Amino acid sequence: MIRAVVIALGLGLSIGSVRAQPAPTPAPDSSGDATNTTPTGNLQSGGDERAWAKGVTKDRQDTALRLFSEGNKQLNNGLFPAALDKYKEALRSWPHPAIYYNMALALRTLDQPIELENALTKAIEFGSTPIDQDKFEHAKAYLVVNAKALAWIEVSCKKLGANVLIDGVKVFTVETGKANKIELRVRVGKHTIVAERTGYNAQVDAPYIEPGQRFRIELQLYTSEELTRYQRRWNAKWMPFAVIGAGIVVGGVGAVLATSAQSSYDDFDTAVARCNDDSQGTGCMVDSSISGLRDSGDNKKTLSIISYGVAGTAVIAGAALVYLNRRTSYEITADEYRRDQSKKAVTILPIIAPDSAGAMVFGRF
Rounded mean pLDDT of 85-95? Predict the structure, then answer.
């Protein structure tokens, strides 16, 4: 007899304990197709005709029961992934409620609430007969507990050829004559919904979806042109050109100073020549009035050189700022586009109900 393993049911809520369901034993009829199973352990036969055994041959039942027993051993030894693999393999031969029930035990420990809900639903599909009343009640109770970790997402799209993805997984492609809509069980929390087609894009970051809520959205696709925006590093577009302009002005001042310096040098040369003529060959004695012309030229020349340096630096800096402040493009999300459009016209209709939240989104193609 298979060793039992006790696993506490509950996510912060205890609803009792469950044991690994022992394997049902097949009993073939005269045609070779097993329509009955002899009760083993807590299994009750409940009659001669059972829907979960119809059409399942003895060979398939034997295969399923062997794998089921192997899965139970793995489950009782705490090897939950290995047990899950065995149960899945067994179900391919015989989708018996007891196998789904034990698979749910493995799934609970592996934190897979969506798959767990499906397994528990299959386990109680035919009532308490195939798994006994106690386990039937535990399964129903845990379905309620497990539902607190789940919500619904309902997505539709009408743009032909678009691929719709939820959390990076493709869920459908929009085709003519198809519903082009999907309803999925998801974990509570935030989810990303995307519709893609060449030249088009739509992405929605769904808000936090509460337990039991239903988020609905109709995706609209927009062209890259509609989603493209432009930006600059600084809003003051004039600033780089102001720097260049200032450099040009300073350069102009430098040119004026250079011209004035040359004029002072010319005046100095003229004064020295006149002085030599007046001295009649005895030598010119340069006084401060003459040397002052040369000093003035030197000062103006120095200032002009500094001005040229400042001007060159300003022009180069301004050119660099023009490059850095060039207009660059970026692409916004469909959510951002709709928010932008909503400032001009109402494009989002919220859907609010006690057990659901979402929106119908309208926009341009």
Answer: 95
The rounded distance, in Å, linking the Cα atoms of 117 and 211 is 14
Q: Provide the pLDDT for residue 334.
A: 65
Query: Residues 305-321, buried b or exposed e (16+ Cβ, 10 A)?
Result: eebbebbeebbeebeeb
Collapsing DSSP to helix, strand or coil, 245 comes out as helix
For residues 96 and 55, what is the distance between their CA atoms, to the nearest angstrom?
A: 12
Residue-wise pLDDT for 273-288, tens only, equals: 777 776 666 667 667 7
Taking the domains of the chain in order of start, what are their residue ranges?
Answer: 6-147, 150-228+345-361, 238-326
- pTM for this predicted structure: 0.54
What lies within 8 Å, CB to CB, of 2 at 6+ separation is 20, 22, 23, 69, 72, 73, 76
CA-atom Rg of the chain in angstroms:
43
Length of the chain (residues): 365
pLDDT, the chain, mean: 77
Are 239 and 220 spatial neighbours (Cβ–Cβ below 8 Å)? no
Q: Higher-confidence residue: 269 or 285?
A: 269
Query: How far, in Å, CA of 150 to CA of 258, rounded?
Result: 82
* Superfamily grouping for domain 6-147: Tetratricopeptide repeat domain (1.25.40.10)
CA pair distance 24, 45, nearest whole angstrom: 9
Question: 204 near 347, Cβ under 8 Å?
Answer: no
Report the range of poorest mean pLDDT among 72-81, 137-146, 177-186, 221-230.
Answer: 221-230
